């Protein structure tokens, strides 16, 4: 197991302030490590990877890692990523968003990016709350859970990101957790190499804003909950149904090969240029 | 399945980067790490380490490194110096990146 941490340090910007801004026990750090390991395992040079991040806790990720990075406006990370991918399709564009960023403020951009099937990897770090602004209820907060703005429990149902992206037409949809780090490495690697739009939802516990209001004593309890309440989708008898015991299925939900928007665009361009000659 | 070899590794915790979340302490299968009175992870019984790599993969702050043990049996580094060479140009505040393999024959 040697050299894993050493490898991560090769990809960090050591002139930034470390240790990073995430709270003790926050899963975002684990996801950052997993992302770096995946990129390294694929052998991609740092200059060929673009990390686009929105606003929120997850937006800080782009600051620390030594790829081409863009820290964009709230909810619009996918639109910037779409532009980058269309301008230079050789780049591997990874878009890091939080649940508020992807589902609430940028919800429209997510479904339309999935509909277009643009070759961008969307990494949605779902911590089930607006962590950075003080713990308000987000669209991914489970029904009945307590947050700063729902002190008696949330009345609304949470978004199922996987189901929504499948319905909107994304060609690779997966879900992982920051507890299952080795599986997460695999999911992110295959998402980056996938030609069309790929979504990886990552459950990343927020002990500070979500955990302490919902009867998790500390970060360790949240990871124990993740360990006990997730099930690999391959082991389910009916993968399309939600498990009856309420556990969260993790794994790859859809993996179909479809050409991305940028490929279709350049095909059209080649065809039209051929006609004019 | 082969028996796990114990005592083959050196567990290094970089205290400046550790935030004391306790994940490594709670999930270590061999109970190698403990939290010290300052709330940081500390290596307690390194000889029990089975080299599973959980702590290294799951440390959110990249503060743990597991290295193969050197031949002369050196184990735990001085925690005050971090894990990098204190005389290296980056010194204590900036960590592990510039630690190459220790040169067995330093030039005079």
Mean pLDDT of chain B: 73
How many helices of chain A?
Answer: 10
Question: What fold name stands as the CATH topology of chain B?
Answer: Alpha-Beta Plaits
Described by the principal axes of the CA atoms, the overall outline of chain B is globular
Q: Looking at the structure, what is the overall shape of chain A?
A: globular
Largest sheet of chain A: 8 strands, mixed
Assembly status: heterodimer
Strand-residue fraction of chain A?
15-25%
Helical run tally of chain B = 2
Q: What is the CATH architecture assignment of chain B?
A: 2-Layer Sandwich
- Of all protein chain pairs, which has the greatest interface, and how many residues does each chain bring to it? A-B, 33 and 33 residues
Describe it:
The complex is a heterodimer of chains A (277) and B (108). Chain A contains ten helices and eight strands. Chain A has helices at 4-11, 28-42, 61-64, 77-87, 99-105, 107-116, 161-168, 181-193, 219-228, 261-276, and strands at 49-53, 68-71, 92-98, 121-126, 172-177, 198-203, 230-232, 248-255. Helix content of chain A is 37%, strand content 16%. In chain A, strands 2-1-3-4-6-5-8-7 form an eight-stranded mixed β-sheet, with helices on both faces. Chain A is α/β, with parallel strands linked by helices and 277 residues long. Chain A has one domain: Thiamin diphosphate (ThDP)-binding fold, Pyr/PP domains (Rossmann fold). The model of chain A has no long low-confidence stretch (mean pLDDT 91). The longest helix of chain A is centred in the last third of the chain and has 16 residues, at 261-276. In chain A, helix 6 (107-116) crosses helix 7. In chain B, the strands form two sheets. A two-stranded antiparallel ribbon of chain B has the order 1-4. A two-stranded antiparallel sheet of chain B has the order 2-3. By secondary structure, chain B is mainly beta. Residues 75-82 and 84-95 of chain B have low confidence and may be disordered. In chain B, 9% of the residues lie in helices and 15% in strands. Chain B is built from two helices and four strands; from the N terminus they run βαββαβ. Chain B has one domain (1-69, 82-96): Alpha-Beta Plaits (2-Layer Sandwich). The interface between A and B is medium-sized, with 33 and 33 residues.
């Amino acid at each position: 197991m040697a050299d894993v941490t050493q490898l991560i340090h090769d990809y960090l910007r050591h002139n930034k302030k470390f240790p990073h801004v995430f709270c003790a026990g926050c899963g975002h750090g684990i996801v950052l490590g997993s992302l770096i390991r995946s990129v390294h395992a694929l052998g991609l040079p740092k200059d060929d990877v673009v990390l686009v991040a929105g606003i929120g806790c997850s937006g800080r990720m782009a600051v620390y890692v030594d790829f081409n990075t863009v820290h964009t406006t709230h909810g619009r990370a996918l639109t910037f990523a779409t532009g980058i991918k269309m301008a230079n399709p050789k780049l591997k564009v990874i878009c890091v968003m939080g649940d508020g960023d992807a589902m609430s403020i940028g919800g429209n951009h997510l479904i339309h990016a999935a509909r277009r099937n643009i070759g961008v990897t969307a990494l949605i770090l779902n911590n089930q709350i607006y962590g950075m602004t003080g713990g308000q209820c987000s669209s991914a907060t489970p029904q009945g859970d307590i947050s700063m703005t729902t002190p008696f429990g949330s009345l609304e149902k949470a978004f199922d990101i996987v189901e929504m992206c499948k319905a909107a037409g994304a060609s690779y949809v997966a879900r992982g957790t920051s507890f299952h780090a080795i599986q997460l490495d695999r999911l992110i690697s295959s998402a980056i190499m996938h030609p069309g739009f790929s979504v990886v939802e990552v459950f990343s516990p927020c002990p500070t804003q979500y955990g302490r209001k919902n009867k998790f004593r500390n970060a360790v309890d949240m990871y124990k909950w993740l360990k006990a309440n997730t099930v690999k989708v391959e082991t389910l008898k009916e993968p399309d149904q939600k498990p009856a015991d309420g556990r969260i299925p993790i794994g790859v939900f859809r993996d179909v090969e479809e050409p991305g928007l940028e490929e279709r665009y350049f095909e059209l361009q080649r065809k039209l240029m051929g006609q004019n000659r | 399945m082969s028996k796990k070899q114990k005592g083959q590794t050196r567990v290094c915790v970089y205290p400046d980067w550790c935030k004391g979340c306790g994940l490594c302490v709670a999930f270590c299968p061999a109970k190698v790490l403990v939290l010290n009175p300052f709330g940081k992870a500390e290596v307690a019984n390194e000889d029990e380490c089975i080299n599973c790599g959980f702590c290294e993969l799951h440390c959110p702050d990249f503060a743990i490194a597991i290295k193969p043990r050197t031949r002369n049996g050196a184990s735990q580094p001085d925690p005050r110096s971090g894990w990098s060479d204190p005389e290296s140009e980056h010194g204590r505040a900036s960590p592990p990146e510039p630690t190459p393999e220790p040169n067995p024959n330093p030039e005079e």
